[in-house]
Each structure stands twice: as C-alpha cells, then as structure tokens.
Amino acid sequence: NLPENYFEEHELVYHPSDTAFGSRRVPFTRTLFIDSSDFRESDSPGYFRLAPNKTVGLNGVPYPITCTGVRRAADGSVSEVLCRYENEASVPKPKAYIQWVADSPQHGSPVRIDELRVYNPLFKHANPDEKSVTGGFMNDVSETSLEIIHGAVADIGLWDSIKRYAATDAGKKELNEQNVETLRFQFMRIGYFALDKDSSMPLSAIESDQIASTKLVMNRIVTLKEDAKKDA
Q: CA-CA distance, 226 to 191, in Å (whole number)?
C-alpha cells in the first residue's frame, strides 16, 4: 500500500539498554529485507512473528505491518512476503517486533556481506566418546558444523561502524597491517561476528566510502543463548 518512491528515515540505537553506544539513522522504504526465520506460512498459537494475515512490529518503526500474501520462486518456495504498512489504521499493539533492512541503494542500504560463516557444534553429541558413538568421535562430526551463507545483508550501521573505526589512529594501523579480525559486531538475535582474514578492507576504499571495493567475510564467534522451549 506504499508508492514505489516511499521513504522515511528512522533513528535506531546500537544497544537497546545503553545509549552510550550511540545510534544511526537508517532509511525505510517500500521494500524491506527480513530474516527468513521471522516468517511462517503455517501459524501456530505460540508463534508471534509474521504469518499470513498476522501483524508484527518493526524495530524502531512507529507502525506495524500485516502480511497479506506471498510471491513464490520457480521452485515453489516463498521469495517475497507481501505486507500492508499500518500507518493509516488503528491496530492492536503487536506481540513481537522483528529486525529489518531497507532496500535503498541511494542510501547505501543494504550492506551486503559477501560470505557469512556460521559455526555450529562440531559434534552431534555433547560427549562423543566410544561409549556413546560407535567408532568414536570421528564418526560423530556434524555435517552442519559449518554453514556458509552468501547474500546476507545488514543495515548501514555496519558500514558506518567500520568507517568510524577506520578514522581512528588504532583503526588505521590495524587496517594498514590487514588485521581485520579485530573488528567485531553483534548481529541482532543471531550472535557475535568477527571479520575474517579472507576479507579485503583497503583503508583507501573505506575512507572514500567505496564499499564495492571491499570484501566482507564474517565468522560467527559467539552464539546467543536461546530458550529451547520458545516458539517465537
């Protein structure tokens, strides 16, 4: 229900409980990226995020969105979630809020991560010894201990943080020595990540705001504690 050129700007804090971390202004447009785990085609009583005919809030945005339909890829999977921006109606306060990233190239959004490496537990069992695993620990290595994701996106706060770091004397020194692994970030509801040495982060490209001349490779270094019983 929004025109093609719709644009808002919102102030998002870096840390929800500590304003000392500062904030950043991000664009809000007709097209948004959301985490795939924040949408289900089949709703359930304990699930509070996005589903057909369901309303959720967007972090830092005054109005929620309601899912009105989906578009599918050739293989039948959901490629787009169609929503109504509830800026002209009175709707109940949502029970859940999700993160989002606007598609607004003229504002540098989204920041595209070339490769995201998600490290999961190496073994299938907590104690993969010969008593619990036939053949010992070598037969217990998980096939999903490393997930490599291409096409992940982040909001412009990621690039702004890198630029601020590059403007410091310590940052210049580290980047000139290609020590990019000192740059670490928390991705909301996902975990803590560090730039990998396979990244390409020329100081000249950062100082001239040429993100296309960089390569972002990130490793998950710490997971976030999740409630195993929580459905939402």
A: 11
CA distances from 90 to 48, 59, 85, 149, 154 (A): 19, 18, 11, 39, 30
Read off the pLDDT of residues 57-77 as tens digits, 9 standing for 90 and up: 999 999 999 999 999 999 999
Cβ-count burial of 70 within 10 angstroms (0-12 exposed, 13-18 middle, 19+ buried)?
middle
**pTM for this model (two decimals):** 0.82
pLDDT digits (tens, 9 = 90+) for 160-209: 999 999 999 999 999 999 899 989 999 988 899 999 999 999 999 999 99
For the beta sheet containing 65-72, the strands, ordered from the edge strand earlier in sequence to the opposite edge, are 78-85, 65-72, 55-58, 97-98
CA distance 190 to 223: 7
